[in-house]
């Protein structure tokens, strides 16, 4: 019995994304255990910082956790939705600018700033996502990249709010009138709490009805349509959720650095977020957190060693793309299960 | 309305570039009928299934489901109206469990899927209905396996279970026997025999023995056109069919 | 006002021609190999550096250009053999990552070899100065040379794509890749050729702007994004689409930046118009892209749609 090539063409037209993602790489329980250990270690970090008398450790850790939160957000669309968004830095920037712009007008409360950040980012995600998701493949990547750059150039030319030079915050956001966030330690724990909360919330989301549709669409969109789902609205919802969480990371980023500039929205930043998700292991939620830690520490370490460290970083990323599967999470799984490949 | 065909197709055509893959196809399938579509390779059978299921837009023609025009509806909308398909090349969610593959089809028609926190895999109602569909295709004992690890024949059974779980009353089965062993094929034929009692079925199949055993009526598709349509006996004796198709098969 | 319009329209066309040179190779790479190449912009940068280096070495721009072009071609082929060849069968994410890493390597590599400071290239004497166009309008000869050279290249590409056997394979490849390999064509060599050609065109664009822009690390990044906009508007795989879209984007961007604020001034007061115009003008091409996508999700001249 032979199959006619012309007859089968349409089934082959939408190949399932190579299945190296999702809880196939690490089990659901494994991810939760790994994340709990990671969070506990982070929670104890200030003890270490005071023991070795290095307050800068907390500042670095806060910065890393901010990017971990953004990478976690990206994992929802990239790892669970197979949407290669190359414009996620824009959401980070929207969050950061919400803080800076509102605070320059005297609105310093973090709750108000966060609401505005989430609202603006959701709206931006809704509009750009609605257009981008009409396409797929290379088109989707290029369009998200282009919209990200649009936001970047918009902020560069917005000279009223610093333009290319960015804006310096006079002080960090207040919480119901109190300036507790001025303490690096408090900010550290607030960001950690947000990260933990986002992790467990997203973990619930990807296991929910909604998440199951998203994962099913990632694996085989045609199959999902053939059982009666229209993937578009689910993908768009995930894109908006992801953008909003990345904007939350931006709110914290502005507070951590007390400075905001268009450079936060640069496309290289979006690329770094993708790298974090992939080295950590996409579609695992815990992986992107590990990936953010690994990439940022590696950058910091390499930058101290050699002025041209980006060359090394580039080589590592190329090797990562060409030779590895499943990132850190995949490697951990192979270590525990003994050599079986994650693909 | 009584007497109205379950599915009625009028003048359906589809071209790829200059090539007319389906050409002015008209079929009426009454409720409860198993209507087989046969034809040599490249006759346009899978294209026809794609058009009926809504995966491909048709260039010309009308498709009516229980009297309602569904020509312009997309595939998901047609499924929700009770028309589901299986795929010639197994199309399942490899990374999901067998149960979840089927439960997703149940989920698609049971309330909103915009629910974000409760764990879908533990929804008893969805799983119970999914188990019923699995029971019908004899896959109960495989329910918790990862779908990718099923045998080929089991995957073909899963395809049918998924289509059943959509709740559709009209099934488009695209070569369900493709690539199956003799025993697997016998099990699937028995399954389709059972399904005839509850479903209207359009069956595209190369296995003539199975077609003539199962079909109430047969349409023969050659180069995108239906050259004969009737009971298996009528079609078997049709000279045009013998010339164009069965003769070729016997000679081969 | 009319003179300004002519001047800016010419600038827009010149910019569009450059975008086309970069986009032409990239759209074929996307279309034929289904490969997303973020590193195409750095080839433009490498072309600029090559011409700067060889011009300095030989003391003559044209001699420098004559060496830079084959050097860019070889560089493209080298990258194809080392990296891109391994990416054709991979999913888009791997391609994004690998080419993103390659950008870091090349941007930093350029910094290591030539330093972070911008380099400049003298406009050759024969092409310096301006010519009068209409009335008082003067236009730099070098920019005219860019337009002429770009149009000549576009014409050459048109002939190559539409009237040669290689071109036939390219067109067939953009609409149906597997068919081309089924014809028994050495697909590996075809890919290498397309890649080398794309690298050389991008390098040519970089070389042409070297005398009027500063040659610096990262100069390929911003043109890459604009190239993407061009390809998305024109339709992946279509050289004709790339040409139309490139000129369109060049004109809209250049004219928008000049006349946006002027037009807005009729609706609001001058300073607000200036501010709003400066902010909105850079977004115009993205809005254009969004509109085109909304109306025609696969671009103005979709290469694939004809086949399916």
UniProtKB/TrEMBL annotation, chain A:
Its main location: membrane. It is a multi-pass membrane protein. The keyword Chaperone does not apply. One of its GO terms (cellular component) is plasma membrane. The chain crosses the membrane at residues 30-49, 55-78, 85-104, 110-131, 138-161, 186-206, 232-253, 273-297, 309-328. The keyword Glycoprotein does not apply. It comes from the Bacteria. Keywords: Cell membrane, Membrane, Transmembrane, Transmembrane helix. It is found in: Cell membrane. PANTHER family: ABC TRANSPORTER ATP-BINDING PROTEIN (PTHR30482:SF17), HIGH-AFFINITY BRANCHED-CHAIN AMINO ACID TRANSPORT SYSTEM PERMEASE (PTHR30482). This is ABC transporter permease protein. It comes from Fulvimarina pelagi HTCC2506.
Automatic annotation (TrEMBL), chain B:
CDD domains: ABC_Mj1267_LivG_branched. Residues 7-248 form the ABC transporter domain. One of its GO terms (molecular function) is ATP binding. Transmembrane segments: none annotated. GO terms for cellular component: plasma membrane. It comes from the Bacteria. This is ABC transporter ATP-binding protein. It comes from Fulvimarina pelagi HTCC2506.
Automatic annotation (TrEMBL), chain C:
The keyword Amino-acid biosynthesis does not apply. The keyword Iron-sulfur does not apply. GO terms for cellular component: plasma membrane. GO terms for molecular function: transmembrane transporter activity. One of its GO terms (biological process) is amino acid transport. Keywords: Amino-acid transport, Cell membrane, Membrane, Transmembrane, Transmembrane helix, Transport. The chain crosses the membrane at residues 12-31, 38-56, 62-84, 96-117, 137-161, 190-213, 225-255, 276-295. It holds the Pfam family BPD_transp_2. InterPro entries: ABC_transp_permease (IPR001851), BCAA_transport_permease (IPR052157). Signal peptide: none annotated. It is found in: Cell membrane. It is a multi-pass membrane protein. PANTHER family: ABC TRANSPORTER ATP-BINDING PROTEIN, BRANCHED-CHAIN AMINO ACID TRANSPORT SYSTEM PERMEASE PROTEIN LIVH. Belongs to the binding-protein-dependent transport system permease family. LivHM subfamily. This is ABC transporter permease protein. It comes from Fulvimarina pelagi HTCC2506. The lineage of its organism: Bacteria, Pseudomonadati, Pseudomonadota, Alphaproteobacteria, Hyphomicrobiales.
């Amino acid at each position: 019995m032979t199959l006619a090539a012309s007859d089968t063409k349409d089934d082959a037209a939408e190949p399932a994304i190579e299945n190296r993602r999702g809880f196939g790489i690490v089990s659901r329980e494994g991810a939760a255990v790994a994340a709990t250990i990671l969070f506990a270690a982070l929670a104890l970090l200030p003890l270490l910082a005071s023991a070795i008398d290095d307050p800068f450790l907390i500042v670095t850790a806060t910065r890393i956790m901010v990017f971990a939160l953004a990478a976690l957000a990206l994992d929802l669309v990239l790892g669970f939705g197979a949407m290669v968004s190359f414009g996620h830095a824009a959401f980070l920037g929207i969050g950061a600018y919400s803080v800076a712009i509102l605070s320059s007008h005297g609105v310093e409360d973090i709750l108000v700033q966060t609401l505005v950040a989430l609202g603006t980012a959701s709206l931006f995600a809704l509009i750009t996502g609605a257009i981008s998701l009409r396409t797929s493949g290379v088109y989707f990547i290029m369009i998200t990249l282009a919209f990200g750059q649009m936001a970047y150039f918009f902020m560069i030319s917005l000279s009223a709010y610093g333009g290319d030079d960015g804006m310096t915050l006079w002080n960090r956001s207040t919480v119901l009138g109190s300036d507790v966030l001025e303490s690096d330690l408090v900010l550290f724990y607030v960001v950690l709490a947000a990260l933990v909360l986002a992790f467990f919330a997203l973990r619930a989301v990807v296991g929910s009805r909604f998440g199951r549709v998203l994962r099913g669409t990632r694996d085989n969109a045609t199959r999902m349509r053939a059982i009666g789902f229209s993937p578009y609205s689910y993908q768009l919802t995930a894109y908006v959720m992801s953008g909003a969480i990345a904007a939350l990371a931006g709110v914290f980023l502005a507070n951590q650095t007390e400075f905001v500039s268009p450079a936060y929205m640069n496309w290289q930043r979006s690329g770094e977020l993708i790298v974090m998700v992939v080295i950590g292991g996409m579609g695992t939620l815990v992986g992107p957190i590990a990936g953010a830690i690994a990439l940022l520490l590696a950058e910091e370490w390499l930058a101290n060693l050699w002025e041209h460290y980006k060359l090394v970083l580039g080589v590592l990323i190329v090797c990562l793309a060409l030779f590895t599967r499943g990132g850190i999470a995949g490697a951990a799984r192979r270590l525990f299960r003994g050599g079986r490949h994650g693909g | 309305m009584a007497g109205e065909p379950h599915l009625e197709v009028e003048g359906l055509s589809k071209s790829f570039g200059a090539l007319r893959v389906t050409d002015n196809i008209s079929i009426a399938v009454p409720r409860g009928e198993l209507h087989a579509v046969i034809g040599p390779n490249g006759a346009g059978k899978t294209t026809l299934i794609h058009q009926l299921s809504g995966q491909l837009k048709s260039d010309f023609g009308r498709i009516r489901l229980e009297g309602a025009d569904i020509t312009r509806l997309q595939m998901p909308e047609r499924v929700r109206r009770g028309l589901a398909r299986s795929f010639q090349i197994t199309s399942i969610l490899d990374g999901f469990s067998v149960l979840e593959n089927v439960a997703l089809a149940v989920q698609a028609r049971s309330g909103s899927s915009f629910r974000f926190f409760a764990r879908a895999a533990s929804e008893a109602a969805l799983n119970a209905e999914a188990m019923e569909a699995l029971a019908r295709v004899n896959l109960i004992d495989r329910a918790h396996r990862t779908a990718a690890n099923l045998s080929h024949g089991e995957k073909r059974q899963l395809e049918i279970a998924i289509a059943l779980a959509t709740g559709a009353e009209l099934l488009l089965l695209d070569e369900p026997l493709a690539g199956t062993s003799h025993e697997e094929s016998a099990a699937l034929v028995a399954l389709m025999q059972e399904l005839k009692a509850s479903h209207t079925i359009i069956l595209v199949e190369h296995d003539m023995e199975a077609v003539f055993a199962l079909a109430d009526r047969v349409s023969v598709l050659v180069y995108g056109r239906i050259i004969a349509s009737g009971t298996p006996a009528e079609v078997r004796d049709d000279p045009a069919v013998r010339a164009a198709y069965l003769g070729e098969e016997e000679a081969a | 006002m009319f003179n300004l319009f002519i001047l800016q329209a010419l600038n827009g066309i010149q910019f569009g021609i450059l975008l086309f040179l970069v986009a032409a190779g990239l759209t074929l790479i996307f279309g034929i190999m289904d490969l997303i190449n973020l590193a195409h912009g750095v080839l433009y940068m490498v072309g600029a550096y090559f011409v700067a280096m060889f011009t300095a070495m030989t003391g003559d721009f044209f001699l420098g250009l004559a060496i830079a072009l084959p050097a860019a071609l070889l560089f493209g082929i080298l990258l194809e053999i080392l990296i891109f060849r391994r990416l054709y069968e991979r999913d888009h994410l791997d391609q994004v990552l690998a080419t993103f890493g390659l950008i870091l390597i090349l941007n930093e590599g350029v910094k290591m070899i030539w330093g972070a400071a911008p380099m400049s290239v003298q406009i050759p004497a024969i092409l310096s100065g301006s010519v009068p166009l209409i009335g008082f309008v003067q236009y730099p000869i070098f920019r005219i040379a860019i337009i002429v050279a770009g149009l000549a290249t576009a014409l050459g590409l048109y002939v190559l794509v539409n009237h040669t056997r290689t071109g036939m394979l390219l067109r067939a490849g953009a609409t149906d890749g597997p068919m081309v390999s089924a014809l028994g064509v050495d697909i590996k060599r075809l890919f290498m050729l397309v890649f080398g050609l794309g690298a050389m065109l991008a390098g040519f664009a970089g070389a042409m702007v070297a005398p009027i822009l500063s040659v610096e690390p990262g100069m390929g990044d911003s043109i890459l994004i604009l190239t993407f906009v061009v390809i998305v508007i024109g339709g992946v795989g279509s050289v004709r689409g790339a040409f139309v879209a490139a000129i369109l984007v060049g004109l809209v961007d250049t004219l928008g930046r000049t006349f946006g604020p002027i037009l807005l001034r009729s609706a609001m007061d001058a300073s607000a118009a200036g501010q709003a115009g400066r902010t909105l003008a850079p977004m115009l091409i993205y809005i254009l892209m969004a509109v085109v996508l909304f109306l025609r999700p696969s671009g103005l001249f979709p290469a694939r749609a004809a086949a399916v």
